[in-house]
């Protein structure tokens, strides 16, 4: 009797790649943002614009993943996406203008979107072949560790590096991690194409139907709802709490530590309660977190938002991806890519709408009402997703 292949090396490789592109690529910008503004490299409005270009790249990367959704295509494009990430991150260390940084963040976002879709999709398909799909959410632990690592790197280098040089720690660490992660996934024993299954009715190739459409609409709310606190919370903390308060320099660290156990927790809740019930609970939790930042004064609201949103947003991602595959198991990677593309589109709208609000004289803090409304929208549509056994 053949032994079942070990899960740990595969899950670890996927987690490392998500750590690289999300922790050292996307989210390192959040703790860096106040310092880049203080160094004079960016203004607050330019910082929001740079974030928008990164989210546009993420959307482009996810759309490319919709096109390149087959296993053979993922094997070809994933290493190139990782190379693009490493090169664009290295180039950011030389970006002395907002325009140059915007272009490089666009490229970095493209690589992030591709890897964030393709690496978990490849692993999920492999797990499905091993009949161990319930472990899929653990891949997202890499994002959580990446949040902590990005915060630590920024904190340790503060006072030593300034301006564009602040990107160096993330850039140098990305190189060996990206190489190791791909070298492990390249060894996965999977056929490039699944054999055609004999069935009385050929599975539909439609992405949207009565089951999946509410899930797509709900996920749009999730993308817009979480991106405002996850991008601007440290900046809001610096404006809302007293100078010298712990949260001025460490609100992102609170988010990171809250996120650390979240893939295991929400993965477990999905198994115990069912992915649909767990997803509804995740929307409620995030909504409470954003409302706390809006309605509670100063440090208490910022702290509660950091804990609840930080500890929940990845649960929404992993549960949605797994539920989507359960609804349409014959087109898992394609559906995953389409969902991430939609998520990327609504994330792109977040900083853009925030910029419009600031130009109209609104405050960064009051822009969080947009996030609260988006999460309420997501919860409403999540109630309409039908249950599946």
Automatic annotation (TrEMBL):
SUPFAM superfamilies: MFS general substrate transporter. Keywords: Membrane, Transmembrane, Transmembrane helix. GO terms for cellular component: plasma membrane. It comes from Pseudomonas saudiphocaensis. The keyword Transmembrane applies. InterPro entries: MFS_4, MFS_trans_sf, Sugar_transporter_CS. One of its GO terms (molecular function) is transmembrane transporter activity. It is a multi-pass membrane protein. It is found in: Membrane. It comes from the Bacteria. This is Transporter membrane protein. Its main location: membrane. The chain crosses the membrane at residues 47-66, 139-160, 166-182, 216-240, 246-265, 277-295, 301-323, 335-354, 366-385. Pfam families: MFS_4 (PF06779). PROSITE patterns: SUGAR_TRANSPORT_2.
């Amino acid at each position: 009797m053949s032994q079942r292949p070990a899960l740990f090396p595969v899950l670890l490789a996927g987690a490392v790649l998500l750590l690289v592109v999300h922790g050292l690529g996307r989210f390192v910008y959040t703790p860096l943002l106040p310092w880049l503004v203080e160094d004079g490299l960016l203004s607050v409005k330019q910082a929001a614009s740079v974030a928008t270009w990164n989210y546009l790249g993420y959307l482009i990367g996810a759309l490319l993943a919709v096109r390149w959704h087959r296993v053979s295509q993922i094997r070809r494009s994933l290493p190139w996406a990782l190379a693009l990430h490493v090169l664009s991150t290295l180039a950011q260390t030389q970006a002395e203008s907002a325009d140059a940084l915007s272009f490089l963040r666009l490229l970095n976002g493209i690589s992030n979107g591709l890897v964030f879709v393709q690496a978990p999709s490849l692993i999920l398909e492999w797990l499905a072949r091993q009949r161990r799909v319930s472990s899929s959410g653990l891949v997202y632990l890499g994002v959580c560790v990446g949040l902590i690592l990005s915060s630590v790197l920024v904190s340790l280098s503060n006072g030593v590096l300034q301006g564009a040089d602040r990107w160096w720690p993330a850039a140098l660490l990305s190189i060996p991690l990206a190489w190791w992660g791909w070298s492990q996934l390249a060894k996965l024993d999977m056929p490039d194409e699944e054999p055609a299954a004999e069935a009385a009715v050929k599975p539909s190739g439609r992405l949207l139907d009565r089951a999946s459409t509410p899930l797509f609409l709900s996920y749009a709310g999730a993308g817009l709802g979480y991106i405002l606190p996850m991008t601007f919370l440290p900046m809001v903390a610096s404006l809302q709490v007293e100078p010298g308060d712990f949260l001025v320099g460490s609100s992102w660290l609170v988010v990171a530590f809250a996120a650390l156990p979240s893939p295991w927790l929400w993965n477990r809740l999905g198994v115990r309660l069912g992915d649909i019930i767990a997803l509804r609970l995740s929307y409620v939790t995030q909504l409470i977190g954003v409302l706390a930042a809006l309605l509670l004064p100063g440090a208490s609201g910022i702290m509660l938002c950091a804990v609840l949103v930080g500890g929940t947003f990845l649960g929404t991602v992993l549960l949605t991806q797994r539920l989507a595959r359960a609804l349409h198991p014959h087109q898992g990677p394609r559906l995953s890519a389409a969902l991430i593309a939609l998520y990327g589109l609504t994330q792109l709208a977040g900083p853009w709408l925030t910029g419009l609000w600031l130009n109209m004289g609104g405050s960064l803090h009051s822009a969080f009402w947009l996030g609260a409304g988006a999460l309420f929208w997501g919860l409403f549509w999540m109630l309409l997703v039908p249950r599946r056994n």
